[in-house]
Design brief:
With 208 residues, this protein is an all-alpha fold. 68% of the residues lie in helices and 0% in strands. Helix 8 runs antiparallel to helix 9. It is elongated.
Length: 208
C-alpha cells in the first residue's frame, strides 16, 4: 500500500507520528505490533500503513524522530554549557550533558535510544539498520564542535570519543542499577583525570 502523494507530510501523519513516538517511549521497541499501537493512538493498522507505507518505514521514521530530537536537545545543552565553560571547559560540557541525560524524566528517551542502538547492531537489523553509526557520528560531531575554537580537529575528535564513551557507559550502568550517586561519582572521577600518585616515604622511614 503506497503512501499518499503530497508536497509534505499531512497534519494527520504528523499527529500520528507524534502519538506513536509517545507510545514507543512508554512501551519500547521489542515486540512492537501495529494493532496495539494503532489502538493506543486512536487509529487503525490500515491507516498507519496508508500513511507510512509499511511497519518498517514507520519504525524508521520514529527512530529518525528520536535521534533528531535527542541531537537537537543535546546541541542546545552543549551550546549553553560552552558559553559558560570558558576555554578549557570540556569537563564542564560533559558534566552538563550528564546532568541532562541522567535526569529521571529522560529515562524513557535514553532507554529507547539504547534499545534501538543494540537492535541496529544485530545480525538482521531490519528497520534499525544504521541507527548506531548515525547516532555515534552525530554525537561525536556535537562534542567536537563544542570544544574551544582552535582545538586541532584530531584532538577534538579524540576527546569527543572519550567523552562519549564515558557518558554512554555510565548511562547504561545507571539504567541497569538506578544508583545515581555512585554513577555520578564515577563521572566526576573520569572527568577530573587520574588521581595524583602518592609520594614515596622519605628514605629510612619505617612503614606503618
Amino acid at each position: 500500500m503506497g503512501t499518499p502523494s503530497s508536497s509534505g507530510p499531512s497534519p494527520r501523519r504528523t499527529e500520528l507520528l507524534d502519538a506513536c513516538y509517545a507510545y514507543l517511549l512508554e512501551h519500547g521497541l521489542t515486540g512492537l505490533s501495529l494493532r496495539p499501537l494503532a489502538a493506543a493512538t486512536g487509529t487503525s493498522p490500515r491507516v498507519l500503513l496508508y500513511l507510512f507505507g509499511s511497519k518498517d518505514e514507520l519504525l524508521r521514521q520514529l527512530l529518525a524522530r528520536a535521534r533528531h530530537e535527542q541531537v537537537g536537545t543535546m546541541a542546545a545543552v552543549l551550546t549553553e554549557a560552552g558559553a559558560e565553560a570558558g576555554a578549557d571547559g570540556l569537563d564542564d560540557l560533559v558534566d552538563r550533558l550528564w546532568g541532562f541525560l541522567s535526569a529521571p524524566e529522560q529515562r524513557p528517551m535514553v532507554r529507547l535510544t539504547y534499545e534501538a542502538f543494540l537492535l541496529s547492531l544485530g545480525h538482521d537489523p531490519g528497520p534499525w539498520a544504521g541507527f548506531a553509526g548515525e547516532a555515534a557520528r552525530e554525537w561525536l560531531d556535537l562534542l567536537a564542535r563544542a570544544q574551544p575554537p582552535g582545538t586541532p580537529p584530531d584532538l577534538a575528535r579524540a576527546r569527543a570519543t572519550r567523552a562519549l564513551a564515558l557518558v554512554r557507559g555510565l548511562l547504561l550502568d545507571l539504567l541497569a542499577c538506578e544508583e545515581p550517586e555512585r554513577v555520578r561519582s564515577a563521572l566526576t572521577l573520569g572527568t577530573e583525570g587520574p588521581a595524583p600518585a602518592t609520594p614515596p616515604p622519605p628514605p629510612g622511614t619505617a612503614p606503618r
